[in-house]
Amino acid sequence: MEALTFYGMEDLRYEQREKPVLQKEDEVIIEVKYAGICGSDLSRYKKIGPLTPGNIFGHECSGVVTETGRKVTNVQAGDRVAVCPQLPCGKCEACQSGYFAACPDLLVIGAKKPGCFASFTKMPAENVLILPDHVSFEEAALIEPSSVVLHGLFQTRMQPGKTVAVFGCGNIGLLACQWAKLFGADKVVAIDIDADKLQLAQELGADEIIQPDKSVSTYAQLMQLTNDAGVDLAMEAAGSVQTSEEVFAAPKKGGEVLFLGIPYSDIMLKRFYFERIVRQELTVRGAWNAVSAPFPGREFTTTLQFLREGKLKTKPMISHYLPLQEGPDIFHKITSGKEKAMKVLFEVGK
Question: Are residues 238 and 342 located together in one domain of the fold?
């Protein structure tokens, strides 16, 4: 089968690999239809390198079940499915209590186990969700990043009438803008340096946009849009050093900060931003992965529900449809700044 294998930093290869085979009675084999590039994939490719050199990369996908183990009852061959790629150990104290995000051995496929940038992938049956008839494979390939956003929002005090600022309008930020509105936010302010991303954020529900300007600070622009009040919830979705600092200035007194992005450099807080945490009595939260109990969690089932009802829009976020063989080239182009992209989907087997 065709596959994208990850050997080292900036060393992604298109190869032929053996098709996975069932080894456990609770496993399923999935023929991958669409697989998406995650922002974390780009960071690992450019900045970190693989956990297991030579492993099949990728963790966001949808497809069709082709084989099932003897004890599998929740899906059958021929079912159209989405995949929860998180793999908690299931044995530690955190897993036993249903707090899977705290599992010390939590991984996703594509890290130590083969991922989904391939013709076929193998998963535990409990990680597979059947798609409603009119939810497309393309939409389903974005269920996992949507669940990442929901995992964070479910931890906040978000409710109708609140105001929200989203720092960074990549895929996670765009989904954050949408979910904030679906949660009933009165005003969502999207912040990004890219005008195209801001335009898409508006199309997907953002009420106001801020494009940082050297002459006027993001903080000053946000205060102007909120009548000097700030917002109830500020979400950091860019994973940048700058926004990881600036996000602390956005909330009003008693407000919240939610970190969804991961910067790969040290964060040094200026006194102004640190004092906002103290003087505004902010609640600061981090959100890790996308799973909860009962596994895989309400993050995935809620995303499926809103896709089925047509309320969550993921197709407008897709900028590229590519065959797997173009994988090494598109990773290089995006991480080197030679090509702009939102969500890249690999059309596997086409």
Answer: no
Residues 137 and 219 in one domain: no
Residues 275 and 294 placed together within one structural domain of the fold: no
CA–CA separation, 240 vs 30, rounded Å? 35
Residue 151, domain member (yes or no): no
- Residues whose CB is less than 8 angstroms from the CB of residue 79 and which lie 6 or more positions away in sequence, other chains included: 64, 65, 130
Range of the domain at 319: 2-146+290-347
Does 160 lie in the same domain as 132?
no
Output the DSSP codes for 67-129: EE-TT--S--TT-EEEE--EE--SSSHHHHTT-GGG-TT-EETTTSS--SSBSEEEEEGGGEE
Q: How many domains does the chain have?
A: 2
- Residue 66's CB: how many other CB atoms inside 10 A? 14
The pTM of the whole model exceeds 0.70: yes
Question: CB atoms < 10 A from the CB of 13, how many?
Answer: 13
CA distance 284 to 348: 40
Question: What is the predicted pLDDT for the residue at 215?
Answer: 82
Q: Which residues of the chain, if any, have pLDDT below 50?
A: none
